[in-house]
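Entry type: protein chain
Record version: 2
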Amino acid sequence: MRRIGSIKFLLTTIVVLLISLGSATAQYVWNSDSAFRAGAPGSGRIWGYVFGDFYYKGHSDSLNRGGNNQYTGIPQGRNAFQFRRLYLGYDYNLSQKFSAELLLAAEDNFPAFNPPSSSAASGDQLLNNKESFFIKYADVKWKNIWKGTDLIVGEQPTPAFPFITERIWAYRSSERTISDIRRTPSYDMGAGLRGTFDPSTKNFGYDLLVGNGTSDKPPTNSFKWFYGDVYAYLLKKQLVLDLYADYQRLNWQPGWHHDRQMVKGYIAYSFPTTEKYYPGLTIGVEGFVNNLRGDTKGYMYKSSGLPNDTLATVAEGISFYIHGDIIKEKLRFFARIDMYNPNKNIGKNLQDSAFAGLSSPSGYNTPGYKMTYSASTGTPTAATSTGDISSKETFMNIGLDFTPIKGVHFMPNIWYNHYNSQLPNPPGVAPGTSNANYDLVYRITFYFVFGKRELL
């Protein structure tokens, strides 16, 4: 009920503001993308975009793995129309030095382990099973607090991927970037500095943020998430290099220092330029390593007993993609493959008699497997599932992008995710039987944007 009241208040505020602007058109320019981008004082714009699909689930993983994707748990053969994102935003120039933005979003309805068959409300779904907007951005920007640098305070995009890697990937309407899939926050409440080292050319820049690390949710502790990103555009902005890192304490007490730290690198080439939203050709590679110290609860087999221990979780992922023109401004193609390992330390030591993630390498809470080992030989004899942090994943997405007019897209595509456990005897799988399986979805995705230039 608190969310519904907040949304009603925000929408009422927007309507009142628009009415006041409309009654003074001689003094204000509103709902103008070009005026807003020019920084005209008193100018504002309403904008938004929507994407969704008609999908058909062609095959379903028998173990319901991949809990961070929107198709986990959806049975084979199901088909439906669904929205995956709805944005409604308002941007306003308070003056030449200050601007504000407000963004309402409604996104995935059925996230990890909560498919449409679930009786529990989930995602952005209310208790009456209707979808709801939430506050995604609400911030104020102080432009050029010093030359080339802006100060942003409030709920805002993080440096993780929204401004470079997601923009150049260009097909968020089909799937998140690899670090976004693993739930690195795309927005957070905090204070940030966003700027360039060379304001005249803007070829080299940075993005820093200190936030709660909880996106739009109230924090439950005092630990902060520290984000940092530096980038370089080379070869007349045809080539971009990007380096990102973050750090967050998760628990800090005598005997248990539990924290996480990620490093991510990105390189992409676009012709004729990375500044063009849909260039003739783009090739990109993005990879990350996420270290979670003291994260995996282990019960180590030893001849003298089974003492508790905490191990490190190390998650790794890499993504390769290409997209480009078939018929300029009308028909394009896109293709992508990702490889992800949620914990490369699993399976290296067969004396690990259990492992249960205390947090997750990808930002969502996921437990692990409890394994039983022979007291005499140390070999695994049984395993009980408590979730899955063991399976390597290979993701593929390929499709066409038909654009009848600028800002409207129809994209037939195939969505595929393959799973293969690193455990010698994974739960739910008979000994000697392959555990490899996959989710396969056929989709026709639609996407449209209004009120501003195309964006993610």
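Comment: Residues 65 and 389 are 9 Å apart (CA to CA).
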